Amino acid sequence: MTQRLEELGKPWQLHYAARSRCSAGFVPKLAEFGAKVRFYFPTEFQREPGAKRIDIDSIVTNASREAHIYCCGPERMLSAFKTATADRSPGRNHIEHFANAQGVDKAGGFEVVLAKSGRTVAVPSGKSILDTLIELGIDAPYSCLEGVCSSCETRVLSGIPDHRDLILTSEEHAANDRMMICCSRSKSPTLVLEL
Questions:
Q1: Pick from 173, 172, 162: which is nearest to 128 by CA?
Q2: Helices (H) and strands (E) in the chain, counts
Q3: What secondary structure letter does DSSP report for 43?
């Protein structure tokens, strides 16, 4: 993201918190951006001059109301971010989870119709849509397998998904026109997907 924003000439800042410098990825590369990147390594208080904990409230308060703010991290950090951004426009606040705490619900079976091929696939109890497609040798994009990355986002042409992802907003869930097939299931007996 930082490289793309630089290419576009857009203003940006990165506040990067990790337990320690050695546990953080991309530090040398990010350090090349100078003052645009602020590092927070709280376990290195004694070893790193000026080191302090990240202050999400302060970061959000000092950000322009027009800015898009992204937060990725553990649940405690995301909870603090949600609290700090509660009075901001929801469309400007973006969250990415490390893991999906609600897990994948694999109870009950249903059918998925793959619109491009017309093939109907039975998704049995105990398997996700993606698991079933992979076992059948059907190519579908994916990455995290937990509903946190959006790689498997698929258009829903018919049926009612049981959304279990952490990517789509509540409005997008209500629209029922797309879903993450790695973790979400079906509330209707059949789903027709653009696959």
A1: 162
A2: 6, 11
A3: G
Q: How far apart are CA 140 and CA 151, in angstroms?
A: 9
Q: Is 3 helix (H, G, I), strand (E, B) or coil?
A: helix
Q: What is the pTM of this model?
A: 0.59
Q: What span, in angstroms and rounded, lies between the C-alpha atoms of 153 and 151?
A: 6
Q: 7, 56, 57, 48: which is closest to 24 by C-alpha?
A: 48
CA distance 68 to 122: 41
> For 30, which DSSP code?
H
Residue 7 · residue 29 · CB < 8 Å: no
What distance in Å separates the CA atoms of residue 70 and residue 97, rounded to the nearest whole number?
Answer: 11
pLDDT digits (tens, 9 = 90+) for 38-95: 999 876 554 555 667 899 999 999 999 999 999 988 888 889 999 999 999 988 998 8
Q: Which helix (H) or strand (E) holds 155?
A: strand 153-158
**Which pair of structure tokens corresponds to residue 23?**
């546990």
